[in-house]
Amino acid sequence: MSGNSPLKNYAWQIVKALISIAVVITYSRYLGANGRGQMSIYLLYLQFILMIGELIAGSAMANWLVKFKPGQILPWMGIYSVAVIVICGLVFSLFFSIKTQILLPLLLQGLGLALLNIQFNIYQSKGWIARRNQLQIMLELSKLFTLLVAIVLFPYNVVEGKVQMMLVVIAVVTMVFLCISISKTQNIWVQAFQVERPPVGIFFEGLWAQLGHIVLFLMNKFPLWLIARFLSNTDAGVFANALLIADTIWIFSGSFGTVIHSRVLRSNRTEYHELLLRRYIDFSFLGTFILCCAIVLIPNGIFVGIFGANFEQLKSQAILLIPGILFMGISASVGNYLHAMDRFKTIFVNHIIAFLAILGIYIWSYWTGFSIEKVALGMNIGYLILMLLHLKSTNWLFKKDFKLKFNILLIKRLFLIKVRHNR
Length: 423
Prior knowledge:
Blueprint: H1 6-53, H2 60-67, H3 70-95, H4 100-126, H5 129-153, H6 159-184, H7 186-192, H8 202-230, H9 233-265, H10 270-297, H11 300-307, H12 314-320, H13 322-340, H14 344-368, H15 372-393, H16 408-415
Helix pairs in contact: 1-4, 1-5, 1-6, 1-8, 1-9, 2-4, 3-4, 3-7, 4-6, 5-6, 8-9, 8-14, 8-15, 9-10, 9-12, 9-13, 10-13, 13-15, 14-15
């Protein structure tokens, strides 16, 4: 089986997700629902920094690295990433009430993750999906181990002290793995030091690509801020873990999407692209549906036993999100296909329309009584609209051969499908 097959990629991502869940369980049990809510808000700030950083130095970079020299892309991406961290640090310190002892590790982690994102785009452009997966898993494992050691060595009674300690630990581990990652691609970075002018207009492509990601980020994470604002940090902490369950399920469809993106970038055969899309939509939906059924069947006591006594409503909130999880299971594969085809504006417009629909539900819920159920309803409607818009953007390619295929030989053939370059 190819090291870059969807099945292997999914296996790697599941291992990563399980470790990430263990990290979140550590947050939840160590901090409680209230502390978990605080942590989720700080991480939202971090994700905002990364979103700004990826306005230019984002996922479109993998497309560029296939077409242009490293010296035309990487130095400019690095400079931009550092500049964003400095500017965001100044803005947060001047206009937001984030304490310095919280802000500094957030910025350090933001810098490490922004530069790691450049590394991951290098891997994606080269088709080194397995190498990227291994690095991500080792990063998550190191976070978990270091956090557990720090909890034992540096006990805190105050929630804010616990949160600060966790942010510092994660920032240091991230920077260490950034250095390790760069050492693995030093030949590419040597070429990057031969700095050349970037291609004309290329950064506007990246801007459109990342604007779409920012809107998707708002679709997924903006509800947390609303819950913390209109309900409580405790409610935000529980819902953050419900979103974690959704993110874990989306790993299945995301694994197909990652492989689609890499293979479409390295092949210009239209028929092959359509074959990938039709097949992966089938299996993305089927796998996502099975995982959602598993969530329904798991007893609530298991969730409470894992995350803690403050998370009794976790399963019920995760179930509320199941329709949206299924819709996004299809959208992920299609979105990666559109991304590889440089359809950045299309993705942005689709995301904007879906987000406006969600905002409409939130405004209605504000006047009629804000609740978790209405937040979930808004997200489900937005994900449905996004799925339909993405599929329409492919001219409904999936309709040409859309039937769920349960034949085990076909499944094997799917996972072993090879890329034939036709440049």
